[in-house]
Design a protein that fits this description.
- This protein is α+β, with helices and mostly antiparallel strands.
- It folds into two domains: about 180 residues, no CATH class; about 80 residues, Pdz3 Domain (Roll), CATH 2.30.42.
- The protein contains nine helices and seven strands; from the N terminus they run H-E-E-H-E-H-E-H-E-E-E-H-H-H-H-H.
- Strands 4-5-6 form a three-stranded antiparallel beta sheet. A two-stranded antiparallel sheet has the order 1-2.
- Helix 2 runs antiparallel to helix 7 and helix 5 crosses helix 7.
- The protein is elongated, with a radius of gyration of 24 Å.
- Its cofactor is Zn(2+).
- One of its GO terms (cellular component) is membrane.
């Protein structure tokens, strides 16, 4: 239940934050916002406030802001001052990019709070080698080794107890486990005595200004890594390397990850929120139809070419793009469920 509540809160922050970026910039430029929707139809609830209808919809994985004159096939606006169609190009770009910018800000805020609060030194399992003592004993990525604060001390302990059965106290998704295993005396080349990779955790507590600076810097670095990963993913799929798709995680995988992080504490959940928000910021600027980046690409094309694309072609492109994204989400969800079974 706790994980479900956290997932709902995260969705609300990420979706409302993103759409609020579009909403507030449209309002600042004097546009009429016809609807602010959380989730996708069918509609569950609506409330009219001013000229905007606020709606709660049945499909929770997303949201939208409907701006007067935004759709390519909209009829010519009678009130040009409130229509997206007649907005200058640079203002259109600001409205489109504002959603991803808000996700970036959410990411910076979340990570800055982590720096501000600090994280106690801790040690985690990054992964276990196949048929290693760690894998056979049941150790898994994300497990926290309770009695050790850093990899150096843990490695020294393992080296001192080769060939002896040892007990490890593990924290997994809020549950304390006792794992018994025997470190190998002569492990295979490239593996340690128990066959795990280790991750040192912990962030020193900082003052507000240092935390904001480091949070911003870390967010920029994370965005760079995300774009690099996305480029590698697209390149790999382009050359037919479909195995790389196995690393993609969807809603079910994220839910499972939240369950694990929830057992570690609020700070770790903030880290996850920041990472997901930065991923959304990066994903939304990709020039793919139905995403903000696709709409931005069409606007830039029209400006460079001096002419407008066929409205029906643009709408069809966004519709096809949306269907492909839904199918991709379903495929990744099925993969995540199969991994859990």
């Amino acid at each position: 239940m706790f994980t479900i509540i956290i997932a709902i809160i995260f969705l609300a922050i990420l979706i409302i934050g993103h759409e609020f970026g579009h909403f507030i910039t449209a309002k600042l430029f004097g546009l009429r916002v016809e609807e602010f929707g959380f989730g996708f139809p069918p509609r569950i609830f609506k409330k009219q406030w001013g000229e905007t209808t606020y709606t709660l919809n049945a499909i929770p994985f997303g949201g939208f802001v409907k701006i007067y004159g935004e759709t390519a096939t909209d009829s010519v606006a009678t009130d040009k001052s409130k229509s997206f169609q007649y907005l200058s190009v640079w203002k259109k770009i600001v409205v489109i990019v504002a959603g991803a910018f808000m996700n970036f800000i959410i990411g910076v805020v979340a990570i800055s709070i982590v720096f501000m609060v600090g994280v106690a030194p801790s040690l985690f399992i990054g992964g276990a080698s196949v048929n290693s003592p760690a894998q056979i004993a049941g150790l898994a990525a994300g497990d926290k080794i309770v009695d050790f604060k850093n990899a150096k001390d843990f490695s020294s302990f393992i080296e001192a107890h080769k060939g002896e059965e040892i007990n490890l106290n593990i924290l997994r998704a809020g549950e304390n486990l006792n794992i018994k295993l025997t470190p190998r005396v002569n492990p295979p080349a490239g593996e340690g005595p128990i066959g795990v990779s280790l991750i040192d955790g912990g962030i020193p507590k900082e003052n507000v200004f240092s935390a904001i600076y480091d949070g911003f810097k870390a967010s920029i670095n994370i965005l760079g890594l995300i774009f690099g990963t996305l480029f590698s993913l697209v390149a790999s799929l382009f050359i037919g390397n479909w195995q790389v798709a196995s690393s993609v995680t969807g809603p079910v995988g994220i839910f499972n990850f939240l369950d694990t992080a929830g057992g570690l504490g609020l700070v770790y959940l903030l880290q996850i929120l920041g990472l997901i928000s930065l991923n959304l910021a990066a994903m939304n600027v990709i020039p793919f139809p139905a995403l903000d980046g696709g709409r931005l690409a069409f606007i830039v094309y029209e400006k460079v070419s001096g002419g407008r694309l066929n409205p029906h072609f643009e709408n069809a492109a966004h519709t096809i793009g949306f269907v492909l994204l839904i199918l991709l989400m379903l495929a990744v969800t099925v993969k995540d469920i199969m991994n859990l079974v």
